[in-house]
Amino acid sequence: MSISVAFVDDHPILLEGLVSLYSGKSDLEIVAKGENAVDALKIVEEFSPEVLVLDLSMPGDAIAAIELVAQKYKDTRIIVFTANSSIETAIQVLNYGVSGYVLKGSSASDLHEAIRTVYDGETFITAGFATKVIMAMKTAEIRRRSQAQRRLSLREEQIVRHLMRGSTNREIAVCLDISEKTVKHYMTVLMQKLDVRNRVEVVLAAQRLDVLPDGSAERGASRRIN
Question: Are 62 and 76 in contact (CB under 8 A)?
Fold first, then answer.
C-alpha cells in the first residue's frame, strides 16, 4: 500500500524535482503540490495526505499552518524540509507537532526514509543535526525542572524579600506574625532549595536565579499565611 504525500515549496524547480523524483517510488503516491502556506492548508483539507512535506521559508505563515494542521488534521504527518538549521526553530515546530525535520542538502534517500518513518508514527531528524536538537531539548528540560524545583512559595518569597532588606530573623518573625523558630525553618528550606550555605548566599542566589516574581512582596503583604 502506497503512502499519499503532498509537497509544498515556493521554489518551482525544486518542487517539480521533488514531485518527479518521488513519483517514481512504488511505495509513494504524490497527491498534490503547492507553493505557499495557504496552499498547504487547502491541500490538507482537500486531499488529506498521509504525509505533508513543506518548507518554512515560503509566502504566508508556515509556522501557523503547521500548528493548525497538527491540531486539526491529526491523520496527516508533517515533515519540515528546509535549509533552516536553527535548533530553536526545529524545537519550536517539533513542539507544535511536526514529525520530521529534514535539512535541504540531505540525500533523496534520507527524505524518502523520513516519509516512511513519520508514516509509521515515529520522528525523523536529519542525522548529525538530530544530536544537536536532542541535546538542546534535554538541556531545556533540565533547566525547566531545575527552575520548578527552585520555585519559591509565597512565604519563602516574603522571607527572601526581608533578607534583602537586611532584616534579622526576629524582625522577619514580627513582621510576618510567625515564630522565630518558623523563620529558621524556612531559612533551612531556602538554603536547601537554592543549594547555598547561609543567608547572604540565599539573597545572592535568589537574585542570580531570578526566583522572585515582580510584586511578590506586595502580594504577600495582602495575604496571611501561617
Answer: no
The per-residue pLDDT for range 128-174, each reduced to its tens digit, is 888 888 777 776 665 565 555 567 888 998 999 999 999 999 999 99
User: Is residue 75 located within the same domain as residue 119?
Assistant: yes
Angle, nearest 10°, between helix axes 154-164 and 180-194? 90
CATH of the domain at 53: 3.40.50.2300
> For residue 40, what is the enclosing H or E element?
helix 37-47
Q: Are residues 107 and 38 in the same domain?
A: yes
pTM above 0.85, yes or no: no
Q: Identify the CATH number of the domain in which residue 205 sits.
A: 1.10.10.10
**pLDDT reported for residue 224:** 36
State mean pLDDT over 194-215: 78
CA distances 66 to 57, 76, 98, 168, 211, Å, are 13, 11, 7, 55, 34
Label residue 104 exposed, middle or buried (CB < 10 Å: 0-12, 13-18, 19+): middle
